[in-house]
Design a protein that fits this description.
The protein is mainly alpha-helical. Helix content is about 65%, strand content about 5%. It is elongated.
């Protein structure tokens, strides 16, 4: 038998399960397996705890759908305001390239993403969009984390507005469809990276694209712009090297900056042509 590491002359047959130093009853703490010495216990308490992260770098949360619920709530609140306030409120927020440029109302590029028609058709429109958001949103949010997910959603919606302004500045458009198409593109990239079958999600995309181009009342620009932006951001988030974590965060930030610059460039180019 050896002496306790803190009390010479006090023999003990028990060792710390972590560092294997001999410990007497006064110098040991019961652990899940065996005993630990006071130094090991103190070190475990003072050692910083690493925060759990999602597969693609965002902080892991117990509630993986909080931002999705907030987005749905924001869409419903804006629709209710438009329903109560009437057409003046709706047409101050709707996306129209001419109004953006001539009135210097750039806020329309994002306000229109939360806006749906205050009519019987608008009820169906917002119901379909919010159902799609509830199906796709929590999956993307849990994969990317709240901040990355929110950035992807908002930039996808703005990307749809930018393409609309470039191709048809006279068109009046509202709805979250562009942002939702961005989430659809993100799901495809995540599925591919995780090795899941792409058949079902690609079928959903094809059906939505057919509807986009076959139904005359749908602005295809919002859908395609959102899909392209969301897919590009998802590629940047998914394929940034996982380690070290700081490098991954930096590369993902660069991806966001590049996509945002692209959207801004398209918007400014469209604005110059509208102004001309």
């Amino acid at each position: 038998m050896q002496d306790c590491y803190r009390h010479p002359g006090r023999e003990t047959g028990v060792r710390c399960s972590r560092c294997e130093r001999p410990v007497c009853p006064e110098c040991r703490v019961e652990a899940a397996v065996g005993f630990q010495c006071l130094e090991c216990v103190h070190g475990a308490r003072t050692q910083p705890v690493r925060r759990a992260r999602t597969d693609y770098g965002g902080p892991a949360r117990a509630d993986g759908a909080l931002v999705t619920r907030l987005l749905i709530g924001a869409n419903l609140a804006v629709w209710l305001l438009a329903f109560v306030a009437g057409d003046n409120f709706f047409y101050r927020l709707v996306m129209q390239g001419d109004a953006v440029v001539t009135g210097d109302q750039w806020y329309r590029m994002i306000s229109s993403v939360f806006l749906h028609e205050p009519s019987s058709f608008g009820i169906l429109h917002i119901a379909m969009n919010m159902w799609s958001l509830w199906i796709l949103g929590p999956y993307v949010e849990s994969a990317f984390g709240r901040l990355r997910y929110l950035v992807l959603y908002l930039l996808s919606g703005i990307g749809g507005s930018a393409l609309l302004m470039l191709t048809n500045p006279d068109l009046v458009v509202a709805g979250a469809s562009g942002a939702i198409f961005g989430l659809l593109g993100a799901v495809i990239i995540i599925h591919r990276h995780r090795g899941f079958s792409l058949g079902p999600i690609m079928a959903v995309l094809v059906v939505n694209l057919v509807a986009t181009f076959s139904l005359g009342f749908i602005a295809w620009q919002a859908h395609i712009g959102g899909l392209v932006v969301g897919t590009m951001l998802a590629v940047g988030f998914v394929h940034a090297p996982a380690t070290p974590a700081k490098r991954r965060d930096l590369l993902q930030t660069v991806a966001v900056a590049l996509v945002a610059a692209l959207v801004a460039g398209v918007s400014l180019y469209a604005a110059t042509h509208i102004a001309a």
